[in-house]
Design a protein that fits this description.
about 210 residues; 6-stranded parallel β-sheet; 4-stranded mixed β-sheet; 8 helices; about 35% helix; globular; binds iron/sulfur cluster
């Protein structure tokens, strides 16, 4: 099966499997949401990583309505509340986030401003679901890194109302701006625990 005319998905799936990361394919983000609703029990705690894709999917609203306890920094009303929500999300049963870039060779790349999102992906939550559209897929991890730095970072910075140099020029200039958005760059190469991380890929485009 060809996804986005770029690659055979079996190759990507096999490469992630060797790294103990499961891949599931969906036709749409709506299908992913339906899957998550059935996969996460109502008594589970959930952390959410801030993301355009998850906002569009209304993941926060969906799980609040279901009755889960959800820790999402975007519901914090004060800097102290935001800080607490970021910390509480690190000890949840489930963590849901999007990915900035994934590669057919089996890596997941993310950039992060304060580090809470990539920290939760790395360690803490028992189970991690990472969501990506086909626009996030590159063949090799060098291309995925290029995507994260030169596409995702400037667009995320602009969305967050920050103004590092890449917002103006449209690509990374390796700045040391006080408004630098990529203080943390994470490459997930694999998982220690089989079954902890699942990549949910939609045959649609979304996010940066
Ligand atoms: S280092 Fe600076 S210019 Fe490069 S992506 Fe990060 S914020 Fe933008």
């Amino acid at each position: 099966m060809i996804i986005g005319e770029k690659f055979e998905n079996k190759q990507l799936e096999d490469n992630f499997k060797k790294r103990k990361i499961e891949v599931k394919w969906f036709e749409s983000f709506e299908e992913i949401k339906t899957y998550l609703i059935s996969a996460i029990p109502v008594d589970a705690t959930i952390g959410i990583g801030n993301s355009q894709t998850l906002k569009k999917m209304k993941i926060l609203e969906t799980f609040l309505a279901k009755g889960n306890t959800v820790f999402d920094k975007t519901i914090g009303k004060t800097p102290e509340e935001v800080k607490m929500l970021k910390k509480q999300a690190l000890l949840t049963d489930y963590y849901i986030s999007s990915a900035n870039a994934i590669s057919v060779d089996g890596r997941i790349i993310n950039i992060d401003h304060s580090g809470n999102r990539v920290a939760a992906m790395h360690y803490g939550p028992e189970k991690v679901f990472l969501i990506a559209g086909i626009n996030k897929i590159e063949f090799i991890h060098e291309e995925a890194m290029n995507r994260a730095k030169n596409t995702a970072a400037p667009l995320n910075a602009k969305r967050a109302g920050m103004n590092p140099p890449c917002v103006k020029v449209g690509y990374c200039v390796d700045c040391l701006s006080p408004e630098r958005v990529c203080n943390f760059i994470s490459i997930i190469e694999g998982q220690h625990i089989e079954g902890r991380m699942t990549l949910l890929i939609a045959n649609e485009k979304a996010g940066f």
